[in-house]
Amino acid sequence: MESAKDKYAKLQGILREMGSLLVAFSGGVDSTFLLKAAHDTLGGAAVLALTATSPTYPESELEEAKRLAAMIGARQVLIESNELEIPGFSHNPKDRCYHCKSELFRLCTDKAREVGLAFVADGSNTDDLGDYRPGRTAACELKVRSPLLEAGLSKGEIRELSRELGLPTWDKQAYACLASRFPYGTEITGERLNQVERCEEFLKGEGFTVYRVRFHQESARIELCEAELSRMLEPSLRKRTVDFFRAAGFTYVSVDLQGYRTGSMNEG
């Protein structure tokens, strides 16, 4: 069985074969690891990080992405993208992620062609094969490479290798855009995205490390990791949370007893 280090060596071989690439860079665990590996393997001139700013991408994540690219020493370009302007996106269909990724990868492909880079790459890994991921269809259609997936790397192995490389993202919670907080068929608006973002920033400020705020019209459903669930029951914190969420526009505030799990909005 291949070790994580064996797979990293395989990844380096894949990157060398690619020669140059533009990384769709969000600042998450996977894209940060890919950017670091590509930069270390190919050198700065052969690698460019593209970060798309949008209403579904929190300001705090954008600032962190800029800090991470600078720490790695990678070139980075910011491009404005507004998914709410994509026809049908705001209605939140089940293939919402397909439309979003198509727009992102189109922007990436155009920029890669403009600056003379051979490939566009994303941070998909083997764990992404186990959930409903319409964005993968968009990646395949636009010939986006997934070097981490090609090397057989799992999320756990990426975290392990990230720690060895000194990346601060090794224990960062998995992140998905704010649109994933809404049940399919629920309209996504700028106001609602801001409402969810503010509430998640509140939880982050209270010291929670793994969290999601799921939007259900008048109700907010909070998902926390199992280790942090009981803390939400502390009277003073519970009151602060309810007060903040109600001020943000929610009437009801609940905590999901199943805790955080990736893709919970796909369970239906």
Which percent range describes the beta-strand content?
Answer: 5-15%
Radius of gyration, in Å, reads: 19 Å
Write out the CATH superfamily name of the largest domain: HUPs
Distance between the termini: 36 Å
- The average pLDDT is 93
> What structural category arises from helix and sheet content?
alpha/beta
In total, the number of domains comes to: 2
> Quick one: CATH class of the largest domain?
Alpha Beta
**Number of alpha- plus pi-helical segments:** 10
* Helix-strand string: HEHEHEHEHHHHEEHHE
Shape: globular
Instruction: Please give the largest β-sheet.
Output: 4 strands, parallel
What's the CATH topology label of the largest domain? Rossmann fold
Q: Which assembly state applies to the chains in this document? A: single chain
